[in-house]
């Protein structure tokens, strides 16, 4: 099982969507986001730092992430832009279209998405 050793302070993760919570629409987060619940973006959402998507978390729609993304949960993306590095852990599920500066994929990640590299 892959694990990330994350320093939430260094990553500037200050926002949280807890387990069971559902956020829909055009969400804007000025800092990093810990996503344990559901973020369903009907229009483009923005995370102003790193994204940490935990096992039960779900991200869908169009999202722009200004930092790295640590994915342990599920992404169903029309389009996700990760301006940093995308880390896909064992047990994560990724579908849709993902753009990132770089990728780290761990054994056991289920990826059926288009993975495109940003310049």
Structural overview:
- This protein has one domain.
- Helix content is 0%, strand content 61%.
- The chain has strands spanning 13-17, 22-24, 28-29, 32-35, 38-47, 51-53, 58-65, 69-71, 74-88, 93-105, 110-111, 114-117.
- The chain is globular, with a radius of gyration of 12 Å.
- The mean pLDDT is 94.
- The total domain count is 1
Radius of gyration: 12 Å
What is the molecular shape? globular
For the residues shown, what is the average pLDDT? Answer: 94
Distinct helical segment count: 0
SSE order in H/E notation? Answer: EEEEEEEEEEEE
The secondary-structure class comes to mainly beta
Unreliable stretches (pLDDT < 50, length at least 5) are none
Helicity range of the residues?
under 10%
Distance between the termini: 31 Å
Number of strands: 12
Work out the strand percent.
Answer: over 45%
Q: Please outline the major beta sheet.
A: 12 strands, parallel
Overview in brief:
The protein is mainly beta and 119 residues long. The chain has strands at residues 13-17, 22-24, 28-29, 32-35, 38-47, 51-53, 58-65, 69-71, 74-88, 93-105, 110-111, 114-117.
What topology does this entry show?
Layout: E1 13-17, E2 22-24, E3 28-29, E4 32-35, E5 38-47, E6 51-53, E7 58-65, E8 69-71, E9 74-88, E10 93-105, E11 110-111, E12 114-117
Parallel strand pairs: 1-4, 2-5, 3-5, 4-6, 5-7, 6-8, 7-9, 8-9, 9-10, 10-11, 10-12
